[in-house]
Amino acid sequence: MTYDGSSWSTPVSLDSAGYVGEYSSLAIDSNDNLHVTYYDGSYHNLEYMTYDGSSWSTPVSLDSTDDVGKDSSLAIDSNDNLHVTYLEEYPNQNLDVHDL
């Protein structure tokens, strides 16, 4: 959703295949493209999508090893490189980082 200063837009469903969207994180790059990471609870994966100003990409699994992707935090550096941290809950309970 976006806020234009007086009202919010209508929500858009990005992914509705199963139990998805928990622990999401949003970042905006220097070209105003949106980037989203989130947890896919159906498959226990870390998922990623991007919006180029006209349409959303198909979801991509960034990590699908065991149970990963909870508590994701997405950041974009000054060169528009994306970095995401997230919880690898099983089997190790590690904090992982993934560079895109």
Helix and strand layout, with pairings?
Blueprint: E1 20-28, E2 34-40, E3 45-51, E4 60-63, E5 67-76, E6 82-90, E7 94-99
Antiparallel strand pairs: 1-2, 2-3, 3-4, 5-6, 6-7
Please sum up the structure shown.
By secondary structure, the protein is mostly beta strands. Helices cover 0% and strands 52% of the residues. The model has no long low-confidence stretch (mean pLDDT 91).
Encode the helix/strand succession as letters: EEEEEEE
Gyration radius, in Å:
14 Å
Number of domains: 1
Q: Describe the main β-sheet briefly.
A: 4 strands, antiparallel
Structural class: mainly beta
Task: Explain what you see.
The chain is mainly β. It has one domain (20-99). It contains no helices and seven strands. The protein has strands spanning 20-28, 34-40, 45-51, 60-63, 67-76, 82-90, 94-99. The protein has a four-stranded antiparallel sheet, with no helix packed on it. Strands 5-6-7 form a three-stranded antiparallel sheet, with no helix packed on it. The model has no long low-confidence stretch (mean pLDDT 91).
List keywords for this structure.
100 residues; mainly beta; globular; three-stranded antiparallel β-sheet; four-stranded antiparallel β-sheet
